[in-house]
Amino acid sequence: KNLVGLPVTYLNDIVNRCDLGLILDIRKFLLEEWAKALFHDRFSELRRQLESAAQTSEHMAALVQSLWKKVQDGDPIANEVGISEASLPGEAKVITQDGLNNFLEANASHLPVYLSATRASEMQTVSILFQNPNVKLT
Fold first, then answer.
1. What's the DSSP call for residue 134?
2. How distant is the alpha carbon of residue 4 from its chain centre?
3. 3-56: per-residue pLDDT in tens?
4. pTM of this prediction?
5. Neighbouring C-beta atoms of residue 106, cutoff 10 Å
6. Tens digit of pLDDT for each residue in 74-84?
7. What is the DSSP letter of 115?
8. What is the Cα–Cα distance from 46 to 23, expressed in whole angstroms?
9. Is 73 helix (H, G, I), strand (E, B) or coil?
10. CA separation for the pair 30, 39 (Å, rounded)
11. Do residues 50 and 95 make contact, with C-beta atoms less than 8 angstroms apart?
């Protein structure tokens, strides 16, 4: 139910992995820990927020328009092109990262395998403490 309409880019490189024979059972693959956020009841709201932010970005509009022109011109690889992190401008990248991070932090109890900025910071602090036993907590 939650996967219908999702861009294939949300599915952890599923097409390439299937082509390489790395996925033998698609159902099992989609039930792995990495996919839990896709089935979360608030994930569709996160998608709406990110899509709305992308639609208001001038750079994103130009990027989509450029890709659409390539598709119309019959560029054979244009249909396989995704929008990667490298093609996102700073503004869109920050909006996307902040939106995803806020979602993960708000739903951390339901999505414990995902790393948010807060969890990364906590892990770094714990790592520093273990590396230096002379550090005292106050």
1. T
2. 17
3. 888 888 889 889 999 999 999 999 999 999 888 888 888 888 888 887 777 777
4. 0.54
5. 13
6. 776 655 555 55
7. P
8. 27
9. coil
10. 10
11. yes
